[in-house]
Amino acid sequence: MKSRFSLSLLILILSLGLMLAGCGGGGGGDKKPAAENKTPIKIGFFAPVTGPAAADGDSVTKAAKLAVEKINKTGGINGRQVELVAYDDNLKPQEAVSIAQKLTTKDGVVAAVSGSYSHTTRAAAPIFENAKIPMIAAYALHPDITKGGDYVFRQSFVGTAQGKAGAFVAVNMLKAKTVAILNVDNDFGTTLADSFTKYFESKGGKVVSRDKFTMVEKEFNPVLTKIKQLKPDLIYMPTYSGTGAQIARQAKELNLGIQMLGTEGIDSTMEFLKVAGATADGIVITTNLNRESKLKATQEFIKDYSEMAKHAPDMVAASTYDCFMVLAEAMRKNGAEPEKIKDGIYKIKDFEAATGIIKGYNKLGEVTKNVQVQIVKNGAFAYYGEITDAEIITPPDK
What we know:
398 residues; alpha/beta; 2 domains; 5-stranded parallel beta sheet; 46% helix
């Protein structure tokens, strides 16, 4: 009885061996590959498409669509197409929070890009961090945005770095010893004005006045008249395109004759340059887009965006476009799951982007790259200089 059982067991083992060998296809020559994952990779996006910042919202939305189209036309992410999941935050923090919750719980995104301002991005950032889904802020500059954890990054300069860069331009390029500050009264304007003042005064400069205004202010004659009497060497104006254009026009009407220094907030072709017209000529700005860069990524972006939008791009468009290109690079090299995307962004070094060479991201998720300085000439932004000084361009890591 025992020998019969042993014989039956031996026959069963041999049969199973032959079956497994047949499945193996003779050493793997006929083995079928596992089915490739062809599902779209969803990337979330929010921007102020309506409301007081609609001009920027339109610009960044076009840039986001252009970036996704470019990624998909060049093979997608390792054969998978990218799908844009976009929302309008109306420049309202509560809307940004609601959008972030939807993107992280219902829409199935693996990463997100903020094409919005500091206060809306700041409200949304903790939601992405808690969900462990990487988010890149295109141009929102408040320092607190990246401080909540390691899943939130910034593509443009943190406000403390750009304000310092502005003061560097004032002292070293424009030779100013006295400055009047006109800043929009929000996260953007306050952060830039504070950091500018700190660096400018540390170099022996004097701030003779500082005035604040809302982002919908239209009348600047009284404050400009006061500044004219103070006779500073320079006016520093961290503000946006609409108010910046009004300041430029009214300063010309008053024959102010004082050099003006702006920031990336007025780096706008369709709103600032179009409205300010000839009165903008001579204004210098700190920004992260050098229109005359020889980099292939920069020139391709300018060409493609101009053909699509029928007008030249601005800083917010370039910064937004780069967010998607950075995500694509991270996913191609490290994987398309949220944690792998996050790790992949931290690994990026010396990456050629539309806004210049990205040297890398520090532990806070802050980007390091050269600060561009542009001047308005004949109604267009042109090269004025580039800041490469490590003391200026290196973002804080705490």
